[in-house]
Automatic annotation (TrEMBL):
The keyword Thylakoid does not apply. Residues 5-225 form the ABC transporter domain. Keywords: ATP-binding, Nucleotide-binding, Transport. One of its GO terms (molecular function) is ATP binding. It comes from Streptomyces griseosporeus. Pfam families: ABC_tran. Gene3D superfamilies: P-loop containing nucleotide triphosphate hydrolases. It comes from the Bacteria. This is ATP-binding cassette domain-containing protein.
Amino acid sequence: MHRELRLRDVGRRYGPRGRWVIRHVDLAVAPGTLTRVEGANGTGKSTLLRVLAGLDAPSEGRVSGRPRTAYVPERFPAALPFTAAGYLTHLGTVHGLSRPEAARAARAWLERFDADAHAGTPLARLSKGSSQKVAVAQALLAEPGLLVLDEAWTGLDTAARDELDRAVAERTAAGGAVVFVDHDPRRLGGAVDAVWTVADGTLVRRTPAEDPSEPGPCVTVVVQGPPPPPDVLRMTATATETAPGTHRLTVPATHSDTVLRALLTADPPRHVVRVAPATPPTDTPGTHR
């Protein structure tokens, strides 16, 4: 069971006389949600993410309800005495997996990010892109309840960025929460549930629709059969039953592959009638969000 993470009047500064990097932060991160954090350089985004991930303790205030958490930093500490596979296996055991389970998960995630050829390569000899793939894989292999991504897409090739988008969709569909920072305002457009801006050390919330870069491209999926499963509905912007047994889903393009796979592998499998581009949806009565 995933829990809601809550920050209550949280502040963080470095040293007893240091300036406050963030202060009076109240934030709730619910299971199954995707949250973007944005703001100018130096405003405290990374500090907030480190507090969310449990790497930094708040200097004041309280954090409660933290689930099992994984974090991808902007800069991966590659100078560690491990090979890529050895590091992932080690982290898997730290997260509670048995060593054989951790080794299998390590291989699977390296394959997903097309980095299996580097399984035996020492971390210090990996390229920036390959190091980042390992950093992302270590956060995903234990299926965390909270995934915190600080510019995690930086350095990844196009295929790996798309794979990370799909992995984020899978985490939220499974009931996990994801909080991320990324320099691309279109990242995961259409799938974001909340956007928080860090300014002068405080948080201001706005809806994704207030940003002209949101909600991003969507696709329409027409499917026949029983109502879509809950994990599919969590990834849709709208879902409408247009006729008995026929459902029209509006899905963020970043999540479309994951939605289609979930529909086709559901029990019973749903029949996908049509997939086509759609204009960004707006909520109307009788729709699911």
